[in-house]
From TrEMBL:
Name under which the protein is recorded: Aquaporin
InterPro entries associated with the record: Aquaporin-like (IPR023271), Aquaporin_transptr (IPR034294), MIP (IPR000425)
Transmembrane annotation, as ranges: 20-40, 47-67, 98-115, 135-155
Ribosomal protein is among the record's keywords: no
Residues in coiled coil: none
Protein origin, superkingdom: Eukaryota
Organism: Elysia chlorotica
Family: Belongs to the MIP/aquaporin (TC 1.A.8) family.
Length: 289
């Protein structure tokens, strides 16, 4: 994880500001397209769980496709915290991302509120418990669904794995679809405190609001730590240029490889000023939803 000095230097860069803007816009789009479709698809009447799950999944895929190269497309405080505790992003970037995500969600909900007829708005697709779901059930549904989500996100981000193929954004979108399909009817399957915050603030829907912060955070950190420490491919197990102690290099941290010494079997690792390479243990990149 970058030190304090590097983190403060990072906050002054254009790349950092682009990343913050990306998190704001990405989370706003999540609310506008995801929650907005639930509201407008049938003029304010409830849509099927399948329809809602597919819409959110494809929306997430589009956001990852668009913003991944700038910020990792977290659009979720739980994802950002997970990359923080596993040492892949700085404290400064984490704080900036979470503020941007919450602000984006609120802005997105405000846009929906202003652009839809009053009779259609309802709760702006806020996440709420089903009448038959208890507090304990709801808490663990959100916890488990976010745990599974984070396992998938970290698996997609493991750059040392050689068994992956296909589209990473689409894979993340399908993971969201899978979780929303089984848990959407019960709690709304938020898995994202910012996604819950925006519609709740604008519509005034605060039922069990603390659960949508506490449970996804617990689930996300558990999934991230499990994958990072138990399941992630170690650089010692693969043929990485520079030997077993060189991590898979991260474009999101502005790390460049110079192959000037390729003939001698070594590589020169160059890190641009203001950035530090995280500990070279695993190949987890700062990709995510």
């Amino acid at each position: 994880m970058p030190g304090l000095g590097a983190s403060l230097s990072e906050a002054a860069t254009l790349k950092f500001h682009k990343a913050i803007l990306s998190e704001f816009l990405g989370t706003a789009i999540l609310i506008i397209a995801g929650c907005g479709s639930v509201i407008t698809m049938d003029e304010g009447r409830p849509v099927s769980t399948f329809t809602s799950a597919l819409t959110f999944g494809m929306t997430v895929a589009m956001i990852v496709w668009t913003f991944n190269h700038l910020s990792g497309a977290h659009i979720n405080p739980c994802v950002t915290l997970s990359f923080l505790v596993t040492g892949h992003i700085s404290v400064t970037k984490s704080i900036g991302f979470i503020i941007a995500q919450c602000a984006g969600a609120i802005a997105g909900a405000a846009v929906i509120w202003e652009l839809t007829p009053p009779a259609w708005r309802g709760t702006l697709a806020s996440t709420v418990f089903s009448d038959d779901i208890t507090l304990v059930q709801g808490f663990f549904i959100e916890c488990v669904s976010t745990f599974i989500l984070m396992l998938g996100v970290f698996a997609c981000s493991d750059q040392l794995r050689t068994d992956h193929g296909g589209s990473m954004p689409l894979t993340v979108g399908f993971i969201v679809f899978m979780q929303s399909a089984w848990a959407g009817k019960t709690t709304g399957c938020s898995m994202n405190p910012a996604r819950t915050l925006g519609p709740a603030l604008i519509s005034g829907t605060w039922d069990h609001h603390w659960v949508y912060w506490a449970a996804p955070t617990l689930g996300a950190l558990s999934g991230a730590l499990l994958y990072h420490h138990v399941m992630a491919v170690s650089s010692a197990d693969v043929d990485v240029p520079g030997g077993p102690h060189v991590d898979k290099f991260r474009s999101t941290l502005e790390v460049e490889i110079s192959e000037q010494h390729a003939a001698s079997g070594t590589s020169l690792l160059e890190v641009k000023p203001g950035f530090e390479r995280s500990p070279a243990k695993h190949g987890i990149d700062n990709y995510a939803f």
